[in-house]
Design goal:
Elements lengths: L26 H10 L6 H8 L3 H9 L17 H9 L2 H32 L3 H13 L11 H13 L5 H9 L2 H6 L13 H11 L7 H10 L3 E4 L4 E4 L9 E3 L2 E3 L3 H8 L3 H15 L6 H13 L4 H10 L16 H11 L9 H8 L21 H15 L16 H13 L5 H11 L15 H13 L8
Antiparallel strand pairs: 1-2, 3-4
Helix pairs in contact: 1-2, 3-15, 4-5, 5-16, 6-7, 8-12, 10-11, 13-14, 17-18, 18-21, 19-20, 19-21, 20-21
Length: about 475
Amino acid sequence: MATGLIRPAGALDAATALQPYRGPWSARHAAHLLRRAGFGGSADEIARYAGMSASDAVESLIRFPDTSSLPEPPDVYDPRPLFASFIRGDKTQRRALFMQARKASGASIRSMREWWLDRMLVTPAPLQEKMTFFFHGHFTTAALQKGVWPSYVYAQNQLYRAHALGNLRELTMAVSKDPAMLLYLDNADSRKAHPNENYARELMELFTLGHGNYTEEDVRQSARAFTGWSINRRTGEFFFNHRTHDDGVKTFLGRTGNFDGADIVNIIYEQPACARFWAGKLLDAFVYDGAEPPLVDAVAALIRKHDYDVAPVVSTLLRSNVFYSPRAYRALVKSPVEFVVGTHKAFGLRRIEPRSVPALAQMGQVLFSPPNVAGWPGGQNWINSQTVISRANFVASMVNAPVMAQSTLARMPLDAHAAARALADAILQGDAPPESYAQLEAYLDGAGTSALGALSAENYEERARGAAYLTMAMPAYQLA
């Protein structure tokens, strides 16, 4: 972990933590909001939000505008038509068809990654994409494993977008029937004679309750309830198979009855541990890691009050005193996706550079390909000796890309002092120590460079790119 990245915890005033923030409002506060409720902001976006009140800024994010004009991915591959031939072919033909499907699916997933990054960058509803990204890392599914083809992955991505600020219970119910999830966690083939426990276990351990809030017997009974929850391989849709469902009496989390999967989800959401679990997850995502128990309790009570509706809870968090507290400010390490999309935002770019997708792999995060069902570890795990180099290499490639000629760098002042201030303010919102401003100014004025003389029209482009790199190499830029 690089030094100086995480601020020490301050004292929490639990009585006022969730009350509306009434303090000063500036570009610095607006940028903080846009980093947490989206993927950062361009200079123009930050200025626009700074011109609103804090409450109006949050309201504009919570109320999603129409996004129907945003482009859909160019190729969402569905191999099912090919599989009709697969069934009829001999062994050699089946192998060739399968390899054809794998190749086409790989290309489709690559195009979907570029599409989603572009959508994160240009969407007029950044909080919708941030919540989609949050659920993508929570209810994880890996593409191209266990028959999880691109069409299933895309449908799941759209499911998370549709439920972005909806009801957590309803989303969990929908995820339990989602074809991608049914395949990834093996529930599609779970039968009463041999119940598969994978989804039943992860539903409680990773998705809703957390370890220690259920027993192994609860896992077994839940698995029985989810038998028969499968997919129609011809249509690719959820299918409840009565013949393979265990319709016997089950005892789960202290309740007894002839339960199916829907009953299991409803019983889980009656548990106090469920609200506390989601409170911790939302605080980790929007405020800071490892929130104090009184704060977790307060958010859990808010979740129960609103019956697991996300919108009023996230709205309260984004308006709260604790959200704008020193403890929360730049307290989260940017994920690679946040780092990449935020860098494009900072430069005012409107398309994701193709080099970004392989760069994300080097930083440790590939969309639609989490490392396992627990998703990406996140937090301080994003920063190590290798990923720091990968982040620096990505920034270096970006500032030297031809597209930067049309970026906000082209509007930098031709005065070293003013340019240093403009860069640090635009990229870091002033979150740089005085010595860093001095170093930037010295670099722009020619210190330590091959070019001689003060900043001028002749050396402007070289200096601007180098200074942007130095600014993004500062510790504060790694933090959201």
